[in-house]
Amino acid sequence: MFYRPQDGHGLPHSPIKAIVAPRPIAWVSTRASDGTLNLAPYSFFNLMADTPPQLVFGSTGSKADQRESKDSVSNIRDTGVFCVNIVPQVLRDVMNVTTAPLPKEVDEFAKAGLTPAACEAIDCPRVAEAPASLECTLSEIIRLEGEANFMVLGKVVGIHMRDEYIHDGIFDITKVQPLTRLGYRDYSYVSEVFSLDRPDQS
């Protein structure tokens, strides 16, 4: 089958997010300018560079009580900082609570029963229960084609890792079992890994 996105696919549901999968999940925590805490997951997310570390996440859609985007993007635009928390599969149901489009004055940390912890380099909360958190300063917010599509670029200025996930000097993904997003309403998590040497490293 072949289809042009502008013409439609003729299937019950769009397949594009099932094709580009799995995708890591950025559990983005922010603080509004009035002090309200916010936490929301984004599956259009990845690391873009490592020296210095830089990452990106995409926000689609908008809320009636925000200017033109969602709470996360609005808060980041106002404050210039945010934190990306990694979601382990054991917190999948808790993460799902934070997907709800709640009013901007609602604190998702409290709603989900999570513990906000202070970041070290930025004025923003992180999820204490997360196996790792990346403190970020805003580099740029880019408006993408389409209604309310935004790309948020950030520079990682602080990294938290819980000690129980570090073994022999390596952050152990098989212990973290990070949650990943697939298509439709499907998720998965990483539980097995394998290594490959590059041709120039063998």
List the helices and strands and how they pair.
Elements: H1 16-19, E1 23-24, E2 26-31, E3 37-42, E4 45-50, E5 53-60, H2 71-79, E6 81-86, H3 92-97, H4 108-112, E7 116-118, E8 125-127, E9 132-143, E10 149-161, E11 166-167, E12 170-171, H5 173-176, E13 179-181, E14 187-189
Antiparallel strand pairs: 1-13, 2-3, 2-6, 4-5, 5-10, 6-9, 7-8, 9-10, 11-12, 13-14
Summarize the structure in words.
There is one protein chain. With 202 residues, the chain is mainly beta. The chain has one domain: Electron Transport, Fmn-binding Protein, Chain A (Pnp Oxidase, Chain A), CATH 2.30.110. The chain has helices at 16-19, 71-79, 92-97, 108-112, 173-176, and strands at 23-24, 26-31, 37-42, 45-50, 53-60, 81-86, 116-118, 125-127, 132-143, 149-161, 166-167, 170-171, 179-181, 187-189. The strands form four sheets. It has a seven-stranded antiparallel sheet, covered by helices on one side. Strands 1-13-14 form a three-stranded antiparallel sheet, with no helix packed on it. Strand 2 (26-31) and strand 3 (37-42) form a beta hairpin. The N and C termini lie far apart (40 Å). The relative contact order is 0.20. The mean pLDDT is 96.
